[in-house]
Amino acid sequence: MTGGNGFIGGAVASVLVAAGHTVRGLVRDKAKAEAVAAHGIEPVVGTLGEPALLQAEARAADAVVNAASSDHRGAVEALIAGLAGSGKPLIHSSGSSIVADLAMGEPSDRIFDEVTPLAPLPDKAARVAIDRLVLGAAGAGIRSAVLCNTMIYGHALGPPAQSVQIPALVRQAKASGVVRYIGRGLNRWSNVHIGDVATLYLLALSKAPAGTFMYVESGEASLGEIAAAIATRLGLGAPQSWNAEAAIAAWGRATATFSLGSNSRVRGEAAAALGWAPARRSVTEWIADEL
After folding, report:
1. Contact in structure between 147 and 192 (CB atoms under 8 Å)
2. Distance between CA atoms of 133 and 175, rounded to whole angstroms?
3. pLDDT per position as a tens digit, 242-252
4. pLDDT computed for residue 251 by the predictor
5. Which CATH number, 3.10.20.30, 3.40.50.720, 3.30.930.10, 3.40.50.1820, labels domain 7-163+190-217+265-279?
6. How many CB atoms are closer than 10 A to CB 165?
7. End-to-end CA distance of the chain
8. What is the pLDDT of residues 106-160, one digit of tens each?
9. What mean pLDDT comes out for the span 36-45?
10. Which burial class, exposed, middle or buried, applies to 270 when counting CB atoms under 10 A from its CB (0-12, 13-18, 19+)?
């Protein structure tokens, strides 16, 4: 497991450990090693930039989950090299910003499923190429699959970690006293609870056919709706709009444009075909009850 101390990797590893599996988790330093060990994960200290280590760990494992980065091609190439011809599973984590637009708060009617052709924006072309590399590894004797996660919400199930989007909105709101959305806040993202994400990874490890690509989602909401739910939960006033320039100045271009200002609407048919039945369906209910 790469990313053993991350939000996705830590959750998946913890569920695997609870199910009786032995999990070795790649971490970058001693402090992170101690954090994952406390959750029953055997730490492997190293980085994604060490191909020999990654190949050796992949060869020794019964299965590999790459949850550290969606964008590190060298690590993926090393894992594929270590697993080639083995028939073992390789689960790679991608993200649905591969279908994101430049809406900056405006709505879109575009909805993608697993068979919708992709024409990613230049910023996301390299990630799509890595996804395709993983899927192509099915031809090298690897039971490879790509799980393309949407906006993930929920509290960490493993070592302390956070997702990207909602925590960014919350941090900004606590610092300023105002919850912000971009433009009109009508842009929509599909979303999924971290507990349901971890359940799907386990299903994919045992059942996903080689070369499977699946979107991981169980609902959707606009960023304006999410901002309003956060404002209510934190006891703040009504959320307010930011223009693109202010949002980029506060959150950075990548987060503002692709994580908080875009539309990323998908439907996951492949996960349902595995028998996945997510328990959570509403991000705004989670915010109201558990944030």
Report:
1. no
2. 41
3. 999 999 999 99
4. 96
5. 3.40.50.720
6. 20
7. 28
8. 999 999 999 999 999 999 999 999 999 999 999 999 999 999 999 999 999 999 9
9. 96
10. buried
Tokens of 98: 């591969």
Per-residue pLDDT, 70: 97
pTM: 0.96
Give per-residue pLDDT as tens, 167-177: 999 999 999 99
Give me the percent of the chain exceeding a pLDDT of 90: 100
Phi, psi (5° rounding) for residue 106? Answer: -90, 155
* Residue of 216, 205, 192 whose CA lies nearest to 280: 192
